[in-house]
Amino acid sequence: MADVAVPVPLAIPNLPTPAGAKAEVGAAPATPSSASSSSTPDVAFLDTPLRAPFDAIGQLFDHLRANPAAAEALNATYPTRGVFKAAAVRNGTSDQKLTVDLSPNRLSGVPDALRATLAPHGFDRVLEFFGALMTQHLDPVMGALGASAAGEGSNSGIDFAPLHRARNVNFRLCDYTPDTAAPQSENGCGAHRDYGTFSIIFQDGTAGLEVESPARPGVWLPVPADRVVVLCGWSAFVLSGGELRAVRHRVRRQPGVRRLSAVLFVAPDLDVVLRPLPTAKQTTRFSNAVTSGEISVSWFKEFMGKRWRYREGNAQLEDGERITQDVDIERLLLA
Ligand SMILES: [Fe+2]
């Protein structure tokens, strides 16, 4: 697997230490209590010749912003949450970004006629890219993560493949445009961990993505802007028994600078029960809800999504709680 950097992981401490890394202001450090050794590849770079079509991605965002009818037609194909999300244009306190959220499932609901109108505006090139990314890298990355999570002295590794047969994946495009309700805000995407197994993030060369140092919670390390990065999420954390950490990350905006990214989210199948796999090292004490098998992926996704949409400005929390998503998830998962 010469194209996958995971077997020779670049764990968080190996990322370049930021000059003047600044402590996170006003947020309590939240770390899985079991933070495992720094040699696990819960953050890794992916060496790939594949390039995200950032010209097409920028073109698609420009088209949807300039043509409300096109955006409305696309959002009507997924009325539950929409596809093109632009809350940041009106809301200065939410994440200051625009997103396009697609998935194989949602694409099946896009009529051919609509797709034909979007095709020349970058849509088809974006879909070609995600198709190639899944074909070339999804299984190798998952295999490498599973092999690495077995711990020293184990031959077996963790076989994630049987839990990912249905391709519960999402395609996300992000436009950290300066043209939002709060042009000077540095908040592109608030600190969080992803819910799934892993995410593959392509960046357009503009700095902004940061991961939290596991050794120094609250210290943020910039990810080199020209690398493709693989980050593990909560599902990997539970399934691996805590061996793979869910990596806390965020995006900081540089006022006046546009940044584009393309992310493939890979999660277990919706009916999978989230608990440590038998072959996983048990490095973490999980809650009764986890160990007794009460938490399915579909339930967990919904639970996290509630907090998420609040942060992203696309919904209000019904209960009005202002608890951070990380603390909420830790209470749920950990003993
Ligand atoms: Fe994320």
Automatic annotation (TrEMBL):
Keywords annotated in UniProt: Iron, Metal-binding, Oxidoreductase
InterPro entries: IPNS-like_FE2OG_OXY, IPNS-like_sf, Iron_ascorbate_oxido_reductase, Oxoglu/Fe-dep_dioxygenase_dom
Superkingdom per UniProt: Eukaryota
Location of the Fe2OG dioxygenase domain: 162-268
Positions of region (Disordered): 21-41
A single GO molecular function term of this UniProt record: oxidoreductase activity
Pfam family, one: 2OG-FeII_Oxy
PROSITE patterns assigned: FE2OG_OXY
KW Metal-binding (keyword) present: yes
Family: Belongs to the iron/ascorbate-dependent oxidoreductase family.
Alphabetized PANTHER family for the sequence: 2-OXOGLUTARATE (2OG) AND FE(II)-DEPENDENT OXYGENASE SUPERFAMILY PROTEIN-RELATED (PTHR47990)
Protein name: Fe2OG dioxygenase domain-containing protein
The species this protein was found in: Diatrype stigma
Source species taxonomy: Eukaryota, Fungi, Dikarya, Ascomycota, Pezizomycotina
